[in-house]
Amino acid sequence: MRMVDLIQKKKDGSKLTEEEIHFIIQGYVKEEIPDYQMSALMMAICFKGLDKEETAYLTKEMMYSGDIIDLSQINGIKVDKHSTGGVGDKTSLVLAPLVAACHVPVAKMSGRGLGHTGGTLDKLESIPHLSIDMSEEQFIKQVNDIQIAIMGQNGHLVPADKKMYALRDVTATVACIPLIASSIMSKKLAAGSDTILLDVKYGEGAFMKTKEDAKELARTMIEIGKSLGRDTRAIISNMNQPLGNAIGNSLEVKEAIETLNGNGPSDLLELCLIAGSHMLMQAHMSDNLIQARKMLQETIDNKKAIHKLKEMVKAQGGDETYIENPQKFKEAKEIIEVKSTSFGYIKDLHALTLGLVSMKLGGGRETKDDSIDYSVGLVLNKKISDYCKKGETLVYVHTNKGLSYELKEQILDAFVFSQDPVQKPSLIDDIFI
Predict the structure, then answer these.
(1) End-to-end CA distance of the chain
(2) Rounded Cα–Cα distance for residues 324 and 259 (Å)
């Protein structure tokens, strides 16, 4: 078997066999297949695609290219959730404690942020002394003890994906649904949970720009999960404006705390209640969505959910008093109000622009080696459908290095006005089970 023949085969639009995909992934991980040949194959896949079987074979081979986490020692049905990423997406910080407070084990491995989307691990690390590094044994023990743990991805998990993603990033082969689906699902499947709930976002602030592409990606990932024996479901959510009001690490943690205390923004709460209801059904803790939602709301009302977040922070070495007193988080040196130069109803809100502004303030990474300023970011005062007077505050900018004219103009340009009333956009567009 020769790699050049397999490149030609896919270039001609023919189907790769399970044995051929095994040869490709094993050879690439062992560095027997060079980057330039893998680049050529992935470009051929971008043009010619993979069918359902090929995508499942690719995911399975990537999944088994490194360690597989064995969570069989954790009691109960282990649930996991994955978001395809967006601006202000602090869902895991709310959703994981909500579900765990209903006695469902949440064993979650998360990633760091790059570009305009923030990472759950970076947000958690804004809590002093909290560690996201733990052994598999510690991870299992913590979930058995308190039903929840969020840790960084094991360095030996899915090495094929690490190598392939780095290559895709520099060869214009990122935006390819079979490659995206196999990348996400290989990591989720290797992480060992029994069920997976996918939050597939679309819109300007998301990786998938259209609703149709998001649905295609969701269907592909569900098929992969089910072909490998995992209960996999997906919700399709709108990321044409930021989720919640806060963008930036500690600002988003504080908003998550507010939400668990019953005082958060309605869109963030609604997304978490819908997603959490499906996770409770996947865990067989409820047989209908109405009952599941009521169970989740009760954990907010009786403070069990916020207590669960405190338990997790303490178990992972963090200072849980920050959860009790969010004002302890380090504040940025300045909070600058950006005021509207127009008036009317907000028609559009460019999430990508605002995410990039937060990154440029120091709240995110342009490269994986950049350091993060946890205290900076944006807090929105107006969102789509809100009426705004001229001179009224649109955004509060939390900054340690002022606000340049260029960034201020980018913020103002992110808001598009209409003189006619605007309907509030839908948050969830579809659910696949």
Answers:
(1) 39
(2) 13
263-306, pLDDT tens digit by residue? 999 999 999 999 999 999 999 999 999 999 999 999 999 999 99
Amino acid present at 426: S
Could you give the CA distance from residue 165 to residue 180 in angstroms, rounded to a whole number?
9
What's the confidence (pLDDT) of residue 86? 84
Res. 347 pLDDT band, cuts 50 70 90? very high
Q: Can you tell me the distance from the alpha carbon of 73 to that of 349, in angstroms, rounded to the nearest whole number?
A: 46
Whole-model pTM over 0.70: yes
Number of H helices, E strands in the chain: 17, 13
Residue with tokens 């705390």: 257
Q: What span, in angstroms and rounded, lies between the C-alpha atoms of 397 and 35? A: 43
Q: What is the mean pLDDT of the chain?
A: 93
Q: Are strands 415-418 and 344-349 parallel, antiparallel or unpaired?
A: antiparallel
d(CA 425, CA 238): 8
- Please give the structure tokens belonging to residue 160: 């094929």
Please answer whether residues 393 and 426 qualify as being in contact, where contact means their C-beta atoms are separated by less than 8 angstroms. Answer: no
- The residue length of the chain stands at 433
Band (pLDDT 50/70/90 cuts) for residue 114 is: low
d(CA 215, CA 430): 8
More confident residue, 25 or 367: 25
DSSP H/E element including 357: helix 351-358
3-state DSSP assignment of residue 200: strand
CA angle 234, 236, 237 (to 5 degrees): 130
| Residue 1 CB neighbour total at 10 angstroms | 10
CA gyration radius for the chain? Answer: 22
Catalytic positions, please? 82, 161, 168, 183, 187
Residue 22: Cβ within 10 Å count: 17
3-state secondary structure of 80: strand
Q: What are phi and psi of 379, to 5 degrees?
A: -125, 120
Q: Is the pLDDT of residue 85 over 60?
A: yes
